[in-house]
Amino acid sequence: MTSLTHLDRLEAESIHIMREVAATCENPVMLYSVGKDSAVMLHLALKAFAPSRLPFPLMHVDTGWKFREMIEYRDALAERLGLELIVWQNQQGLKDGVGPFTHGSAVHTDIMKTQALKQGLDHHGFDAAFGGARRDEEKSRAKERVFSFRSAQHRWDPKNQRPELWNIYNTQVAKGESMRVFPLSNWTELDIWQYIYKEEIPLPGLYLAAARPVVERDGTLIMVDDDRMPLEDGEVPEQRMVRFRTLGCYPLTGAVESEATTLPEVIQEMLLTTSSERQGRVIDSDAGASMEAKKQEGYF
Amino acid sequence: MTYTPDAQIADDILGYLDTHENKTLLRFLTCGSVDDGKSTLIGRLLYDTKMIYEDQLAAVERDSKRVGTTGDAPDLALLVDGLAAEREQGITIDVAYRFFSTEKRKFIVADTPGHEQYTRNMATGASTADVAIILIDARYGIQTQTRRHAYIASLLGIRHVVVAVNKMDLVDWSEDVFDRIEIGFRKFAGVLDFADIVCIPMSALTGDNVTEAGDTTPWYDGPALLDYLETVDVADRGDERPFRLPVQWVNRPDLNFRGFAGTVASGRIAPGDEIISIPSGKRSHVKRIVLGDDDLDEARQHQAVTLVLADEIDSSRGDLICDVANPAEQSDQFQARLIWMAEAPLLPGRQYRLKTGNRTVGASVSTLKHKVDVNDFSQKPAKVLELNEVGVGNISLSAAIAFDPYKDNRRTGSFVLIDRQTNETVGAGMLDFSLRRAANVVWQDLKIGRMERADLKNQQPAVLWFTGLSGSGKSTIANLVEQRLYDLGRHTVILDGDNVRHGLNKDLGFTDADRVENIRRVSETAKLMADAGLIALVSFISPFRSERQIARAMMPEGEFIEIHVDTPLAVAEARDVKGLYAKARAGEIKNFTGIDSAYEPPVDPEIRVNTVETSAEEAAERIVAYLDARGLLEGPSFHGGL
Ligand SMILES: Nc1nc2c(ncn2[C@@H]2O[C@H](COP(=O)(O)OP(=O)(O)O)[C@@H](O)[C@H]2O)c(=O)[nH]1
After folding, report:
1. What is the ipTM of this complex?
2. Residue B68 has what pLDDT?
3. How many CA atoms lie within 13 A of A252 on its CB side?
């Protein structure tokens, strides 16, 4: 046997982290966002606990504005694998008709995602929640712990993080407090894609190029996923070959033009682009709130 | 160069994916003082390995004009130096992790900015690193910090060190300067346990000898930094060492499957191999190695797997599955090296939680032997360990754990200490060796006696017998003493005369016979408590000398401490906290001590406190001081042998 590869090592580390949570936390949950990082996280969890079923449920915070295909994919997956899936929505937000077009992306994201997440965690009394965030995503994450402690108000205090040595994780929390746990902390974007390819992990079709109805707004291609999207004067959706680099709320997620209809082609395109990853996500260019500030508020 | 795709990507993506799938992983740590060029070096590595995208570089170029230190050239430090951004946001980084990769390896860099929290942060980064890069500014040579960095790297078990002699461009690439630094480093690092030391003359600014040899150092024939990082063998034959798998989680979906899930800490294992589980000492053979849907032919160091054994042996989280020929020791008393990471100092005797890779037990430091000055490696006496201090001490656990010395195994020889109140991680430690010889694998049917029980609590048993009139202040003082003892991490119990009469002795009245029986039961109970290893505080009027003498006779010499709470009757009666004296005077209570029943003061008590002249607090202080002076607050006297 040759030496372990970097993917073997990353896989083992993630599995170790998940088992530690299962063994020491009372009521863990896995936050499942339907995207590729969640797909990898779920795959690792299935590996970690096989042949047992997952010793925790999945929770999807559904803003009500996700791509329809994400929802279909999610439900079919849960069905096929017999997963315990909690779908959480901010009921008050739904009643108030909160959405990105009427309230703006910042308010929508805050109410339907950040607040909804806190509600869901509180409602179920989860003391540990897995998230798929990676340290390579942006600067403030580079220093976040794998086990990230949150106060009863779900606040992250970057100045007061627990030292994390070796593979020993302090999972002690008082009642009401919780941990966010990031088993993919040390994975990079490329690691994720390579692992998906190697392990043949299924993904929603949105990651592959297909002819989809899009309009171009402020230089971003937005897919017209349903008729809630108000078209501006003269805007006519046109069919273009596009795919998505990240999956979120369809009005907030930019498509990229692409011919990549297979996974290796997607990876190839990604490796051939010379700009950094996150330019598909409209929310990141919203002025004002930095990621750091959002996280302190409880954004994942 | 900014990110430029490999030519293979466009031509043969599948071939490219296959090559890159087989990269290995290296984790390293960079250490340097402020301005040695650490951020510039990491930025340089990221840039030269094409990890930086055009838009990121554009952002850095913009920032360089504003805050950069490199004139017209982009300041590569800004790629990683969150500091500028962080300073603006009022946030400090402690340990940040960066990633880059080449065709051969993926690298995880632990980056610990050098500020006041240095020891704690560097230790954290070092704990998972295999290589340490120690930066030295060529102009200044070896500094105090250089020694500190080398010491901490070695303390955390890093075996491979690169001395990056940086800013060589500012000393005209002088071979002389470089040689002096190299010789100096090798000299003091001789006492530190490094497997190899490589010194590289470089400039993070110009990139010479970072990713490629420059023509500036014809006299240097060693590797460029990246060459070294791509090829250094850090496995240290970890999969040839004895097999260890700490059981993390028991996988039991149904009656047909029972697996022990964990990450292999060292060695390798294959189906058919014989194992032993510590502490049970039970043996079996490996039947299957499961990972997901697959069965593996072998598992080796770092792999997270599930072992299925041939026999139904009872193993659970916290156990260590070992090579049968070479099992781990177990013990509950260790010498360990400790790094303190919290504002509140480490107090010997105080109870913490100790967590290893798969187990949490109670722990206290029984003796702090010395602390180490990380700047010159000298030993200094210490009563406590403050934040960022390193020390050596004996620790005592509430239960035995299976372990290896840290120098043999970083995974089974390490632990963190967790504060019981705040749940914070307050310290980290590395096990050196067990303090007990009887650390056998096979469980001995040890006879557990009172000293063993007390040892476990890391204390000496005693009975503190408070005698005095009703209302003299016995309970108040006893409670204060107990509070102090508790704060010192001592295990105590209080037997209070009034309370005992509500429970254990509720069938007894105040006849002479009942009084004798009352005190006999209390004495027996106190003795049981002391036998359990506790310090028992008995607060009891116990008016008669003969009765107190009976209690004293039950206890070993020196463990019965009679404390006379000496309060004149008039004072106690004037206080009359419970209104009993009034009732006694009114004849409602018969045989009341001091009124119509005698109190015989002790002739020669160990301690006499006069509550008229001394406050209850002072009295408690005196009693604790007495115990301390008698050595009763020290840990056990390792009669098991060292
Ligand atoms: N001339 C020269 N300057 C350097 C070199 N490496 C770093 N510097 C400069 O030294 C200063 C401090 O560097 P920085 O990387 O921020 O140091 P850090 O505090 O260790 O991260 C900056 O002005 C750098 O441009 C080098 O090799 N040669």
Report:
1. 0.91
2. 64
3. 26
Q: Probe ligand 1: pick from B29, B30, B35, max atoms within 8 Å of CB?
A: B35
- Segment B334-373, tens digit of pLDDT: 999 999 999 999 998 888 999 998 999 999 998 999 999 9
- Can you tell me whether residue B402 is helix, strand or coil? strand
What global pTM score does this model have?
A: 0.78
Inspect the interface and report whether the beta carbons of B24 and A6 lie closer than 8 Å. yes
Cα three-residue angle B206-B211-B217, rounded to 5 degrees: 60
DSSP H stretches of helix in B324-473? 450-456
Both tokens of B627, joined, read: 């115990």
Supply B20's token pair.
Answer: 């890159």
Please say if B434 is a catalytic residue. Answer: no
> pLDDT tens digit string along B501-555?
888 888 888 777 777 788 888 999 999 999 999 999 999 998 888 888 888 888 8
pLDDT for A199 beyond 80: yes
Q: Under 8 Å CB-to-CB from B509, ≥6 apart: which residues?
A: none
Identify residue B309 by its one-letter amino acid code.
L
- CA terminus-to-terminus distance, chain B: 60
CB B135 within 8 A of CB B164: yes
In one letter, which amino acid is A272? L
Is residue B91 predicted with pLDDT exceeding 90? Answer: no
Q: Please give the average per-residue pLDDT across B114-141, as a whole number.
A: 89
Distance CA A236, CA A222 (A): 12
Name the residue of chain A whose CA is nearest to B303's CA.
Answer: A12
User: In this structure, are residues B554 and B548 in contact, taking their beta carbons and an 8 Å threshold?
Assistant: no
Cβ–Cβ below 8 Å for B10 and A48? no
